[in-house]
Amino acid sequence: MIVVSLAAKVISTVRASLTLAEAGHAREVDIPSRSALEALITALFIAQKESVRRAKRWAQYAVLQKARVLKKYPDLFKKPEHLKARAKILQHAGNLKKLFPNPNFWASGLGKRGLRDLAEDVGMGWHYDMPYWSASQSTHGGAIAVDRYLDLDADGNPIYNVGLSLRNLHGELALCCNLLARTLVMLNDVCKLELKQICDDLAVEYTTVFGGDPLQGDIDSGQR
Fold first, then answer.
1. Residue 159: enclosing H or E segment and its boundaries?
2. Domain ranges of the chain
């Protein structure tokens, strides 16, 4: 159920990226794509092996996240039913704390330091180092992200790009299709949907449009 739920998030989030692309917001497409990529890496890691244990640990981590907010804002909820729920969450989080040696990452108790470890385990290390890293810059307000919004005219005057753009759209669409193809293959493997022929046909179609194999290695660097 958890793997399929994560797959649903991937599909829905990629759809949001495609909506941005169709509307001409190419500079922003990679921001939701990053979220979809993280969800897919997480789903693949959970589905890889020890699925019940990994899925349970992923779900338990949400309790720690809720408890963190409740501790930071103790006066957030004051109604009796809220106070009862609050006490229950805090007690539950206390019991689970030992499972998360690094409270900032859900799989730390499984010997993983961060998302990159998960990406390496499921054969998506390049995706983490390239599209995920690049989209992380876009998500935050650093110089690398802001650079795409600033150009100079012939006289050296700044031009602030707040309009529509098709910049790097081909590569962004390749990533979106790559994520969808991998998600379908994962669902077919996990749920036994007997969609191998469809997955194979999709891989051929991807190769025809973008080049490369959507399920092996990286995305053609010339596309991004």
1. strand 158-160
2. 2-166
Kindly list the distances between the CA atom of residue 202 and the CA atoms of 60, 78, 179, in Å, as whole numbers in the listed order. Answer: 35, 53, 12
CA distances to 82, 83, 100, 105, 176 from 96, in Å:
21, 20, 7, 13, 36
Within the chain, residue ranges assigned H as helices are 2-22, 30-48, 51-72, 80-96, 115-121, 125-127, 133-139, 143-147, 169-191, 196-210
What are phi and psi for residue 58, nearest 5 degrees? -60, -45
pLDDT digits (tens, 9 = 90+) for 43-83: 999 999 999 999 999 999 999 999 999 999 988 878 888 89
Please enumerate in sequence order all residues whose Cβ is within 8 A of that of 176, keeping only pairs 6 or more positions apart, or say none: 14, 17, 18, 21, 29, 33, 36
- Rounded (5°) CA angle 178-112-34: 30
pTM: 0.91
The DSSP string of 127-158 is HIIIIIHHHHHHHTTSHHHHHTTEEE-TTS-E
